[in-house]
Amino acid sequence: SQITTLINHKDKLKRSDKTLQAIQRVGQAVNLAVGRFVTVGEAIANENHELKEEMSVACIEARRAGETIAQLTDVASLDHPESDSHITIFTDRTGVVKAARLLLSSVTKVLVLADRIVIKQIITSRNKVLATMDQLEKVSSFQEFVQIFSQFGNEMVEFAHLTGDRQNDLKDEKKKARMAASRAVLEKCTMMLLTASKTCLRHPDCESARINKDGVFHRMRLALEQVIEIVTDSRPNGENEMAPISIYSGIKEFKNKVEGLRENLYFLSKENLSTMLEVILEHTEDFTDSAYTSHEHREHILELSKQAKMELEQLLSVWMQAQNQKTKDLMEDLEVAILKTCQCMNELKREVHSAATSLAADLLKYHMDHMVLKALKITGVEGNLEAVAEYTCKLSEQKEQLVEMCRLLRHVSGTEPLEITCIHAEDTFQVTGPQIISAAETLALHPSSKIAKENLEVFCEAWESQLSDMSTLLREINDVFEGRRGEKRVYLSLPRPGKHNANLKALKPVKLDTEEQAKIAKLGLELHLLTSDVDSETEKWEDQENEIVQHGQGMSSMAYSMYLFTRGEGLLKTTQDLFHQAEIFAAEGTKLASALHAFSDQVPDDDKPLILLEAEKMISMCKQLQITAKASVQGKSATFTKVDACILKTRNVMTLLCQLLPLCCKLLRKNKAGNGCLKPAPPWREDRIQTGTSAHTPERRAETFGIKSLENHVTNMTFLESK
Q1: What CATH number should be reported for the domain whose range is 1-76+91-115?
Q2: What's the CA gap between 312 and 263, in Å, rounded?
Q3: What is the pTM for the complete model shown?
Q4: What fold, for 247-358?
Q5: Residue 552 neighbours by CB under 8 Å, 6+ apart
Q6: Which tens digits make up the pLDDT trace of 264-300?
Q7: How buried is residue 135: exposed, middle or buried, by Cβ count under 10 Å (0-12/13-18/19+)?
Q8: pLDDT tens sequence across 692-720
């Protein structure tokens, strides 16, 4: 950011004392930051001899470039920089560009080398865990098992810390979700491995106990392998990851292609569109062929599939004509065909979503009492093999239902991370079901065994935990579908037309027709892009609880729901809903302006006027939006004009918000660092220790899988030995 400021400075800048001091301050800040960065890089180099030479060269280059930038920006003491023999940023801009390029190149190299070291640490840690697991699998005495499991526990704690840090660093949400899923498996399997191994040691001739233990070891090895795949960004034997396509993502891509015809009639073939629809409709067979889909949902999905084919045929016909002859009438017919096709796909998406979520809600409610698990525990302790066999059949049926539920939910999950969570849930039910059965059979064969009873309890708890997680997952999927987007959203105001404003009662609640949607589509798309920009900016803030961030996220959420309205989707169903949402949005913007006033007291006097000026702009724009939203109008044309004005003014507020967030974030960091002068860096080892032990924060607790409980368990392993 600082380098960009230097490179982009105006050649004919007004060279006041304040400007010269600012340039020098930026140059010094860059040099100090580089010095701090290089100190850490050199410490890493000293600890990792195989990369020491490469790292040292990159650090030297970075330090040299930082010093060059500091020299070129040493202008504060010069009255006439251009006439002085001293070379500065004013006389040698090319030199600054070269130094900046060298700096960015060398810094990138240091980062890449450091990343290679982190990856190596994780692979080494994984190899230790695997080696100890091999020993655990072969032990034949309790005493030997206790000693090796104690070592295994410590190694798993180290692996948990390393992979938790890596998960936090991942920028790809899909990889982050896969890493979270793998680490969740390792968390649960660590306890399963303990009880399953104990049971096998106590009952060495029991076949079901051996099957139970082997299943745990196999699943842990798969999870460890997946972590390495994510970390190294590779797959065994050079395979490409082929993620199954969901109906939701298929419809989204199909609609994007169809809507792209507005801009370019020749960018894809009709065969391409037809194939895309065929793939989507093939996936709907997962619903229509499912024994758990209701008759009503099945009929609706089949009807909409048939309608989608007809709408596409009409679209293709008009599209081919428009390619040959671009008349006004044909282009209008094409627009109508595009809107009808997209509308049909929206209805299909809504129908499959309803089918999947209603099934999930019913199944979760039905199985939440865990009656089958309770019965297995009771009949197992009684040693009733016949009853256990009966209830294991019922558990197998329940497993098939839940697996099918996960497959259908994946189709409507809405985001790649949620898709991965559905796949993980499906795998968990697939694997845990048979493991519960083998654990129950072991208990039934040895009804007086406390270890076999404890083992069954652990596997049942894993099943119950996954069912509980499914309720949360279902809520998140519904949030995404309804426009709340459930990820980093603070809230979404739910409008109640007619209750909040007297003027709204005079309005007839209406929806936009297809022609109006087409007119406002471009404006809606601009609003959508702005919400993405705002989300991106808020994620850069270290303090996510900051009032400015909270209000910014709330405004982004509401603006996104207004964008969905322009597409005929989301929670806002009528123009009246939209106007009320605009009022709430404006009120939130006013609160943000108040937060900016408070923030201005924390920044230096030089920067304060800029913040206050932006705050006043925000207040003025929000007042204009409120006036527009509250204005009473009559007639279809006037109502659409008001809709257009509300969306336009919301877009303007969001544009200002996009400028404000990075400015405030920059000033906050500057203020913390003491006007650009950075504090000296702590030693590399000390910094790593501090990072590794910051588990007291809620985020950290969530990211480190069962570390505390595992550490406590390892500490108390002597209790197991005495038993």
Answers
A1: 1.20.120.230
A2: 18
A3: 0.64
A4: Four Helix Bundle (Hemerythrin (Met), subunit A) (1.20.120)
A5: 534, 537, 538, 592, 657, 661
A6: 777 777 788 899 999 999 999 999 999 999 999 999 9
A7: middle
A8: 333 333 333 333 344 444 544 444 443 34
